[in-house]
């Protein structure tokens, strides 16, 4: 069983930057794709960025050019570098992973990001 723990959230002014981390413990070498989602109050959870085991990245249109997802396979850690933050980026950010040869997915507990105008 893999556990995911997010960190790095906080309060930042518009235009600022934050880097979120998602650390995996347990059988992290079986991790396949990792995704960052976010959920703002009153809104549905949305996919922000994803990275495959081979390093292929995909971004939501709303964050392209501002956010960068990366991973350190050996450490089992994935990062979300967020630049030029906007108030509409305010949300709880969650990481999510799926695993080789398994239909299971794991979720972290989330980390709050608040961007003030």
What does this protein look like?
The mean pLDDT is about 95. The strands form two sheets. Strands 2, 4, 5, 6, 9, 10 and 11 form a seven-stranded mixed sheet that branches. About 0% of the residues lie in helices and about 55% in strands. The protein is mostly beta strands. The termini are far apart.
**Element order: H for helix, E for strand:** EEEEEEEEEEE
Net shape: globular
Secondary structure: helix percent = under 10%
DSSP summary, beta strand count:
11
Radius of gyration: 14 Å
Average pLDDT reading: 95
Question: How do the strands and helices of this protein lay out in sequence?
Answer:
Elements: E1 3-7, E2 10-13, E3 18-25, E4 31-39, E5 46-51, E6 57-59, E7 67-72, E8 77-82, E9 91-99, E10 105-107, E11 111-116
Parallel strand pairs: 2-11
Antiparallel strand pairs: 1-3, 3-8, 4-5, 4-9, 5-6, 7-8, 9-10, 9-11
In short:
It contains no helices and eleven strands. The chain has 117 residues and is an all-beta fold.
What are the defining features of this structure?
mainly beta, 4-stranded antiparallel sheet
């Amino acid at each position: 069983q893999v556990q995911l723990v997010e960190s790095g959230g906080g309060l930042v002014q518009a235009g600022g930057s934050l880097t979120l981390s998602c650390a995996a413990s347990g059988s992290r070498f079986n991790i396949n794709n990792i995704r960052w989602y976010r959920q703002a109050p009153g809104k549905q959870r949305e996919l922000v960025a994803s990275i495959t085991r081979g390093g292929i990245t995909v971004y939501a249109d709303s964050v392209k050019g501002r956010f960068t997802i990366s991973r350190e396979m050996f450490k089992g850690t994935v990062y979300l570098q967020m630049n030029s933050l906007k108030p509409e980026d305010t949300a709880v950010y969650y990481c999510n992973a799926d695993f080789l040869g398994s239909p299971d997915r794991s979720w972290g507990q989330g980390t709050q990001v608040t961007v003030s105008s």
